[in-house]
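Q: What changes when fe (ii) ion is included in the input?
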Amino acid sequence: MQTIEILEKTFDSESNDIALYLAMSRRAEEEGHSEIAAYLLNVAMDEARHAAEFATLLGKIKDTRTNLVMMLAKEIKAESDKAEAAKIAQAEGHDNAFEFFEKALLDETRHKTGIKKVLSKLGKELNQSNDKQS
Ligand SMILES: [Fe+2]
Ligand SMILES: [Fe+2]
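A: The predicted holo structure follows.
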């Protein structure tokens, strides 16, 4: 297997592990195992750092403006995907999934709005520094 392919697979598997460890940490907390919950949360953060490093090695991370533009497109897609998923889950009677798609949809909308705000702030900062240079 080529290195890039291995890096992609490792990135995917580390990313999956973040979610699993976070959910398992939450479960441990619910079961009253606070110390185990804290440990699992710690491991989740390690996996997040690993995933971030693999993302960087794969060239997925660019300059901040490019990163924000890319993620804005992803958040817009996530927002409409969640809306569609909520409809399907509701029609099929998956009430828990429906409720969570609706809740997560609000988060995606918040992410979209937040990224738009920082992009506009960054645009102004870039314009100011260009003005100073010219
Ligand atoms: Fe890892
Ligand atoms: Fe998001």
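Observations recorded in class: The chain has a mean pLDDT of 96.
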